[in-house]
Amino acid sequence: MKKIVAVVGATGAVGVEMIRTLEKRKFPVKTLVPLASERSRGKKIKFRGKTVAVETLSEDDIPRVDIALFSAGAERSRRFAPLFAAKGAVVIDNSSAFRMDPEIPLVVPEVNPHAIARHKGIIANPNCSTIQMVQVLKPLHDVAKIKRIVVSTYQAVSGAGLEAMDELINQTKAVLAKRPIRCKVFPRQIAFNVLPHIDVFEPNGYTKEEMKMVNETHKIMEDYNIAVTATTVRVPVLRGHSESVNVEFERKITPDEAREILRKAPGVVVIDDPAKNKYPLAIDAVNDYRTFVGRIREDFSVAAGLNMWIVSDNLLKGAALNAVQIAERLP
Amino acid sequence: MKKIVAVVGATGAVGVEMIRTLEKRKFPVKTLVPLASERSRGKKIKFRGKTVAVETLSEDDIPRVDIALFSAGAERSRRFAPLFAAKGAVVIDNSSAFRMDPEIPLVVPEVNPHAIARHKGIIANPNCSTIQMVQVLKPLHDVAKIKRIVVSTYQAVSGAGLEAMDELINQTKAVLAKRPIRCKVFPRQIAFNVLPHIDVFEPNGYTKEEMKMVNETHKIMEDYNIAVTATTVRVPVLRGHSESVNVEFERKITPDEAREILRKAPGVVVIDDPAKNKYPLAIDAVNDYRTFVGRIREDFSVAAGLNMWIVSDNLLKGAALNAVQIAERLP
Question: A–B: how many Cβ contacts below 8 A?
Fold first, then answer.
């Protein structure tokens, strides 16, 4: 059964990857409907060797599609996703708009695929930094039960979109040329610097990005007893999120056991041979569908703990790929 | 009492800062004796407006000095520091050579100044990433007793020396120009990437840098009951180490209490106004003697925990300044 698929936000960093992913994975697309805001009027995209004009998103003209992949920001999702769903589409939404809505499934297909079935027209795609973490942690949780997670992230600028990638490049050139830098996307200089600030701050002192890692982990893992705390940090990397993940378990699990479990985990690759300088790296993860884990070692500071280093392409498994994988599991 | 001061490794990233710091802090230097390896023969340095020739370090010609600041690598320290001490010098050694020797004090002047007195000719200067962390944590430990520390670092390339800074700059230019990159100092690309690898790997899967943070914290804080685990990561930043530090305490301490304590801590500055995008940043810490802490917030995943973000200039408080501060406390 071929499907009419809309991509809302088709010209953005994630939208472009959604379209590429649909094509690369041979998703049964009958017609592709790329949509974007007024700003992208007149733009064209390539799909299966053909040029397709990008249409302008408008409340007066919601197309009737089977699946709508949204990546156009939370505000547009809140406005348009229900309209697409009302016209019969299943919306898979990459924004934070619906993620914590108890009526809406939040899905990582390797972790909680069963949640897809209870959708009522909208399925939420989790935050990039959460997806890669839970994908690795779920199989370990099943075996040794996770008590607590302390995560610090090293997140690429592409998580903030194409403009953010330009900003890193332009600032880098400016610093090298000793010219003044310009900040538009990021509040402070990102070139040759790290920013402990992603998304906006909440009254409790955490950023929204940090609270996403806490709350989304609970919802996707379907276990609200896991204690989670997060510090999310932007680093001058174009693409590929890295994470330093400290995990305390209920029962002891050795690094060897963990590696054996993770070698069998779908979509996960263990790269863990420090003696040969082999560990996951952001630059190696770019354009790869898989999530990489390494530096797995015992945390001697607790009775049963592990440290690990998890890396994935934030635009793929962290966004576009995960959305397409959800679409692949729709009836 | 003016002193004859040798700087061994005078042309390196830390050595240069040691000489600048002696001058800026008006250390009572009678004569400065800059020493370096054969490679630096013929080089000259500036001190108090005068040009001083760099002398070549040689076992046959150990100068008689009052204080010798060493930053020339662990191997040279092991070979030369005892020779300087035998000639009457107090050696303050920035390498890892003597740090864990129970006979040798390991000192952060704000934390354990009393340890200086028991030296027998050599005092060890701790690892950069440890200094800034314990400087902030000690005053909190005194009040609420630390049970456990989980730290992930974001360390600047200058920790690996001047060549490493050149490598980051050169690789960055190469990536921007789409030319192939060269790796000499770092095992893999550092430009637009992060490396979960600093110093060499140990059999337990940790790097030496990570184990330094564990072992040196115990020795400097003089409390072997504090559980510590660390993940140390190199980021494409030239100067200034950032750290995501998660701390579990024995008794509850609020972020406000912690800020109040830290505002009084010597050498520590609290920058913690997220609503105004104010938090410590590596680029702001460069050339500053102080250690900055912010993003202080409750860790809801334990009964009594805090997360914080600690930043300092790795070449100053993390190396040269700390060494000079030790020298300032010698009789």
Answer: 161
